[in-house]
Amino acid sequence: MIVKQISVFVENRPGKMAELAEVLYQHQIDMRAMSMAETKDFGILRLIVDDTYKTSTVLKEEGYIFSITPVLAVAVPDEPGGLMHILEVLKDEEINLEYMYAFIARRKDSAYMIFRVEDAEHAKKALVSRGIKLVCQSELSEL
Amino acid sequence: MEHYYHPEIECAPPEKLRALQSERLCAQVRHVYDNVPYYRRLMEEKGVAPEDIHGVEDLHKLPFLTKDDLREAYPYGLLAVPLSDCVRIQSTSGTTGRRVVAFYTQEDVDLWDECCARAITAAGGTKDDVVQVSYGYGLFTGGPGLNGGSHKVGSLTLPMSSGNTERQLQFMCDLGATILCCTPSYAAYLGESIHERGLQDEIKLKAGIFGAEAWTEEMRQEIQKSLGIKAYDIYGLTEISGPGVSFECSEQTGMHINEDHFIAEIIDPNTGEVLPEGEKGELVFTSITKKAFPLLRYRTRDICVLSRKKCSCGRTLIKMSKPMGRSDDMLIVKGVNVFPSQIETVLLNKGYPANYQIVVTREKNSDKLEVQVEMTPEMFSDSIGDLAAREKELVDALKAMLGIYAKVQLVAPRTIARSEGKAARVIDKRNLY
């Protein structure tokens, strides 16, 4: 399903990530998935958390710049070709993939991945129609 | 042995010079009053008429001109001759709003060239020299000024303009340049390049004439050592003519002002009051020979000191110190005039907040300009590509406005230090003064 990812602007300087991690810790926010995209001067930390609303309130209060981005959380069969099948669906539907990252879950049968595409609704329908399992926000916490 | 281009002027008894200045000043005030309605109005507002000016001692009665006047009068408002008598314009770097266009008659160009010829001669230049002019040519006065001066001296002139270091070095070696004219930072860069390529024994340079930006005594020592030359400072501004308003001699303790063309005053920048010789204040110039664009009491915003102490070179022309600062917020970066307000205009036009900071540094003798901009929620995007594109757009807009590259650094909100609610806009780490 479509889940909400929080993308946070972080300056590329020593200690900046630690500061952000501390803010999340102080408010007992649990991260389910994360990925960092960086340039020479700054980075974008992409986060999926247990409580998006609370996290965005906290970040706002702390003066962080962030945006909420709709992304797809997908269960990928943990076997050779698992990712390929998903990407083939996107290819067939001519959906452009902007970025993706994997995250760790406690379950062993599936790997889990986040996909950022141009048209999340379109991708969601296409993936579901081809029998690919999407994960919704509430399920993420239980993985 | 000291050489002079115009010994009868450069070494004239001070009273003779002053009499010449007084005579020329009176004629110039009349010329401006009669031909420049803009300045006539300023004189009338101050209640002063040409008849009140009998000599240099009355100069203080005249109203000042500032860069704002030049902007207001752009483009023809301060022109004192028919346009058909003009043969050239030069212009300062900067935006439309801040641009200064100066006009020259053929005589004006000649006298400017002669001022530069005095500078080249003071640096030991003769008709046997090969003068490599690596200042920019075009609207910028650096290239055309030294080019003209070199012609007057009769030296072989290499009109290189700036940039293209490989070609600079090739001509310098192959044609045996003996005098180099460029910005001090470019001279330092050329020095490094020469050492990197092991060309020390190939060059024949003996002197350099460096200006258009501030440089320290340490930098002079470094350049002199690196290039094996004597490095001379030169000063000027487009409003008054260009380089050669003043120039250094072998004593290297300040720049002799070409007083037969320009009268210098030092004023208190806050009150406008004229300060006695030796006191530090804002430098003001009155152009007493130029016909097309004769500015009277133009405030340069450069802070310096004047001295009539006897000079070992034999010149009697008054000397000005290297500028020690500015009485406005103008920065000179890579020889280009930059106002923080120009950067602010670009940011606001592009929808950025006015929370910014300008950081100027000098790395390996080359100026670097960085503009730090606080990120806002509106500007932010989850896509690195979008942010990079926005950054590029801003870099391009700044380049169009300033004429030079400025690095853009996006920083987190509230990271730019504010004092008393007002941000310190400029951090100049170059220690120029």
Could you explain the architecture of this structure?
- The complex is a heterodimer of chains A (about 140) and B (about 425).
- Chain A is of the alpha+beta class and about 140 residues long.
- Chain A folds into two domains: about 1-70, VC0802-like (2-Layer Sandwich); about 70-140, Alpha-Beta Plaits, CATH 3.30.70.
- Helices cover about 35% and strands about 35% of the residues of chain A.
- The two termini of chain A are about 15 Å apart.
- In chain A, about 25% of the residues are buried.
- Chain B has two domains: about 5-330, ANL, N-terminal domain (Rossmann fold, 3-Layer(aba) Sandwich); about 330-430, GMP Synthetase, Chain A, domain 3.
- Chain B is built from eleven helices and 23 strands.
- Chain B has helices at about 5-10, 15-35, 35-45, 65-70, 105-120, 140-155, 165-175, 185-195, 215-225, 340-350, 385-400; strands at about 85-90, 100-105, 130-135, 155-160, 180, 205-210, 230-235, 245-250, 255, 260-265, 280-285, 300-305, 305, 320, 325, 330-335, 335-340, 355-365, 365-375, 405-410, 420, 420-425, 425-430.
- In chain B, strands 4-3-5-6-7-8-9-14-13 form a nine-stranded mixed sheet. Chain B has a four-stranded antiparallel sheet with strand order 10-11-12-15. Chain B has a four-stranded mixed sheet with strand order 20-19-18-23.
- In chain B, strand 6 (about 205-210), helix 9 (about 215-225) and strand 7 (about 230-235) form a beta-alpha-beta unit.
- The mean pLDDT of chain B is about 90.
- The interface of A and B includes residues 5, 7 and 63 of A.
